[in-house]
Design goal:
By secondary structure, this protein is an alpha/beta fold. The protein has 13 helices and ten strands. The chain has one domain: Alpha-Beta Barrel (TIM Barrel). Helix 2 runs parallel beside helix 6. The longest helix has 19 residues. It is globular and about 50 Å long. The relative contact order is 0.14.
Length: 289
């Protein structure tokens, strides 16, 4: 089965741009070099386990911009954001690496991962094995695969390659048909994107319509459209294990405090959090020279 996209959509334009860029980069940086880089990369952090804990597991997304919103956060300090969101209780991070439409970069991914200890998902439009090797060579722990833009055979091949080098990918679906294709390809982490990639409209009901079809042995992730603690609780009670949240956090003056609030914790400023952390370290004798 081949994926089809409508000519002229935002998704089409992004894919056209990414394909041209990847072909150029493959000429400059051969896959053989990336394989050496992957061997030298930091050990993979367990993305699947991070999303399987009891409770509200948030994949906090570092997203500078989007086609629908334009620039979301400026200036954009990836290490500082990563550290703040990790301290506030994120289970994992997602980092946009597409440059033209989302203003992301692999540097942001590397810098964010170095700043804290959580697993990091490479969020991009991936359709070539070369990109999977590129993700691992840049220390990614997982990567996104969008069923809508991949054939069945390519989807299976990319999942298999990811597992071969230690990364369990997040497989994104938008419809029941795409979910069936993901499961047939042996997906273990299923993300239901509530945003229609063709129209950019968001319907949180999309998650609720598909959750019953996601097997218990899969990690179920609801993506986009979650705005408050009540939304999280509703989705958790429906059966979702994790939640990918980007714009809501990136638009906040203090993303860490906004994450605390989403998780149902008292709203804490960065200064209050740092003071509390210092007090805890002093009590436990965890001093750093």
């Amino acid at each position: 089965m081949s994926a089809q996209t409508n000519p002229g959509t935002v998704l089409d334009r992004i894919l056209e741009s990414r394909r041209a860029e990847v072909e150029h980069r493959k000429c400059v940086l051969p896959e053989t070099a990336l394989k050496y880089g992957a061997k030298a990369a930091s050990p993979v952090r367990d993305f699947y386990s991070a999303l399987s804990r009891d409770g509200l597991n948030i994949i906090a997304e570092l997203k500078p911009a989007s086609p629908s919103r334009g620039v979301i956060r400026e200036p954009f300090d990836a290490p500082e954001l990563a550290k703040s969101l990790s301290e506030a209780g994120a289970a994992a991070l997602s980092v946009l690496t597409e440059g033209e439409y989302f203003h992301g970069s692999l540097k942001n991914l590397r810098d964010a991962r170095k700043a804290m200890g959580l697993p990091v998902l490479r969020k991009d439009f991936i359709f070539d094995p070369w990109q999977v090797w590129e993700a691992r060579a840049n220390d990614a722990d997982s990567f996104l695969l969008i069923v809508a833009v991949l054939s069945d055979s390519l989807l299976r091949d990319l999942i298999t390659l990811g597992r071969k080098i230690g990364m369990e990918p997040l497989i994104e679906v938008h419809t029941a048909v795409e979910l069936e294709r993901a499961l047939a390809a042996s997906a273990k982490i299923i993300g239901v994107n509530n945003r229609d990639l063709k129209t950019m409209a968001v319907r949180i009901e999309t998650s609720l319509e598909l959750i019953e079809q996601i097997p218990e042995n899969c990690v179920a992730v609801s993506e986009s459209g979650i705005r408050n603690h009540q939304d999280l609780v509703k989705m958790r009670e429906a059966g979702f294990d994790a939640f990918l949240i980007g714009e809501h956090l990136m638009k906040a003056a203090d993303p860490g405090a906004a994450l605390f609030e989403l998780l149902g914790q008292p709203r804490v400023t960065r200064e209050q959090f740092d003071a509390a952390s210092a007090a805890t370290d002093a009590k436990n004798g965890n001093w750093q020279n």
